[in-house]
Amino acid sequence: MNDAAVTTGALARRLGVSPTTLRTWDRRYGLGPATREPGRHRRWSERDIAVVEEMGRLTSLGVPPADAARTALKRGSDPSGPGVPAPREAPGARAGSPDVFVRERRGLARAAVRLDAPVVQDLLTGAVERHGLIAAWQEVMVPTLHAVGRKWEEAGDRYVEVEHLLSWHVSRTLHRCAPATGTAATAPPPTAALVLACVPGEQHSLPLEALSAALGELGVPQRMFGAAVPVEAVSAAVRRTGPAVVVLWSQARSTASVPLARHIADTRWGVRGARGRPVVMLGGPGWAGPAVRGALRPTTLREALTQIGKVCGDRSNIAVRQRG
Questions:
Q1: Which among 107, 127, 303, 305 could bridge 136 via Cys, Cβ 3.0 to 4.6 Å?
Q2: Which of 203, 252, 251 is nearest to 227 (CA)?
């Protein structure tokens, strides 16, 4: 017996699946331990583990279980065998269709629950490449984050690690999507930049990162300040850079502050006689209370980009690009 062999329970915890799932894979597809000893707990060798890990990876990518099992078994016996088969499309399914988005969300959630970081990253990167940043964010990333968050709430303290892993990889993907908007020699003057900041006490910055990434893809200059920015820091940034739009993100009602929004909207910049003030954009569900006069209130990433384009008066730069 291999000293590295593990029990079914230990392997299930390692893969983030239930022991029942492993037994089902064994019964239906023959993905059980190659060596069995009567009267003893089943033990999984490194080769057995590699096969079921491949099975989990393939099903996360949308490969039907029977096809995934055949490929996993073949690759387990012949590592130089054929590569991963392409996911089988449902009849009538196409890139960007609701069925495709549902399948991608399920695969991403399964990979996150297994804490399979490489697959999570591959799925996120693939979603952006296939659908574009806006659709990937609105149709794949956000629904999966919400689903994982609900699972965490329903399970008490469990699955916290799943939400953190998924959030980190979403953030990493968004940062990769946002090219620099200019080098030191070619960057636009500071007054051309937008200001993006989470309100004081607000740590949920992913939606703001998505907006920053989308603006970066379009080459729109910006200043991204991230989570929990003090009031004084936002005011100073507005006075120093003279932005056309200041985006304030609030995820929860407890962090949203109408006086803060009004204060930023009244912050002046520029020389005497030619002073200006920014348009404030209130992003996030935290701003569901009283309205702030003159403030923009987009409900989606696409809508935020459209509104920013209207304020900046440059439709050629801030255009929401669709993929066919």
A1: 127
A2: 203
DSSP state of 190: G
Q: DSSP labels for 203-241?
A: ---HHHHHHHHHHHHTT--EEE--SS--HHHHHHHHHHH
- In the block, residue with structure tokens 């949203």: 256
**Model confidence, pTM:** 0.69
- List the structure tokens of 40: 């003893």
> Rounded to whole angstroms, how far apart are CA atoms 259 and 250?
14
Q: What share of the chain is helix, strand, coil (3-state, %, to 5)?
A: 50, 10, 40
Largest CA distance in the chain: 90
pLDDT tens digits along 180-216: 544 443 444 444 579 999 999 999 999 999 999 999 8
Beta strands in 22-70 (DSSP E): 43-44
CA 84, CA 15: separation in Å to the nearest integer?
A: 19
The DSSP secondary structure of 298-319, one letter per residue, reads -SSHHHHHHHHHHHHT-TTTS-
State the chain's mean pLDDT as an integer. 80
Count CB-CB contacts under 10 A for residue 269: 18
Q: What is the pLDDT of residues 250-262, one digit of tens each?
A: 999 999 999 999 9
Report how far residue 214's alpha carbon sits from residue 247's, in angstroms, rounded to the nearest whole number. Answer: 14
Local structure of 28: helix, strand or coil:
helix
From residue 136, alpha-carbon distances to 196, 222, 318, 319 in Å are 21, 22, 18, 17
- Pairing relationship of beta strands 245-249 and 194-198 according to DSSP bridges: parallel
DSSP 286: G
Nearest to 279 by CA among 287, 269, 290: 269
Residue 148 identity: V
